[in-house]
Each structure stands twice: as structure tokens, then as C-alpha cells.
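HUMAN:
Just now I want nothing more than another pair of eyes on a protein record. I would be glad if you read both lines and explained how they fit together. I have put the entry right below:
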Amino acid sequence: MRNKQSRELFIQNYMFTKRHALDAAFKMLKKGFSRESAISGIEDKTRALLTAPETQGIYSETIRQQQMNEIDLLFDHYSKILGAEGEDYDVLTRNAYGSRQNYFIFHEQLKKTEKKVSDAARQTLGSKADVEVLLRIEKATEEIRQSQIEKIFGA
């Protein structure tokens, strides 16, 4: 039961940046928000987490800064995708990035940025960090992304 709760908490934290970046990109492109306005709402939410009782000892300014870097990168990615022409994700991605190489570069940047978030979390959590699970998730994520690149742009 504890392992299931830990996994669910990890998934929520892993998706935290993705959800916020997508929401901000949507607000900018579909609701007319400026980039700064869309991102500032996220900055306010993450800043509030620093003082929330339930995040004490598991969230830090270091994690927050690395998450904001990831959100900035993802915001740009989602803005490209949402602004492209196409009927499904594969077509949108090809139209947004133009080439396999450009999309691959984005994925490499994302991998490095996510690693910095993970490193900050490990540093903050210390011995409470489940490094083995994190490494398995990183490996699985990389395999899925490589498969996605091949599906979208061919081998």
C-alpha cells in the first residue's frame, strides 16, 4: 500500500510540470494571455508550495527553480504543437518541428532538464529518495520517447 501511494505521489509530481506548462500554453494561445501572465500564475503556485505544511522536507527552492526551467521548455514545446497545423499529434509534431533532428534536440533538452529536477529532488529528499524507482522510470521514459520519435519521423 505504501509503495502504491509513493508511486502515485511520484506520478503526480512527475506530471506537475507537464500539466502546468500545457495549461499555460493553452491560456496563451487560446485565451489571449501573455506568456508572462501565463507563467507567472505557475510561479505563484510553486512559490506557495514552499511554505505549505504538506510539502515541508519534500519541496525546496532548488526543486522549484529546476521545475520552472522544465516548465519554460515545455511551454515552448506545447506552444509549438498547439500552434501547428494538423489533425493528430504526429502530424502536429512533424509540422511544428520540421525534422527528426529538431524534435530529437528538444527531447535531449527535456531529458537534461528533467534530470536536473530529479537531481534536485534527490538532494532535497536525501535518504528518503527512491533512486532505484527513479532510474527505472527515467529508462522507461527514454525508451517511450525514442519509440515516439521513430513513430513520428520514421526510423
Observations:
- The two ends are 41 Å apart (CA to CA).
- The chain has a mean pLDDT of 90.
- Residues 2-31 form the longest helix (30 residues).
